[in-house]
Amino acid sequence: MCVKIVPSSKQLILGKDRGFTFDEVLAPKTSQEEVYSTCVESLVKSIFEGYNATVFAYGQTVSSNLYNMFISVY
Description:
With 74 residues, the chain is α+β, with helices and mostly antiparallel strands. 22% of the residues lie in helices and 38% in strands.
């Protein structure tokens, strides 16, 4: 694998030594429910408090078709 997830941190390593830190880093087999509860649920709740929220997701489906999702609530 060319990308390694650093356990219990929000980092991943690209290649041998290029590290990147994100708000969240999830494993490839993470369920949709876990992605929602970890990354999106708090944003959805915050829109009811008057905040703006944007969710942008990009990835690959099982059938190798690319998909993307952009949700913006104002």
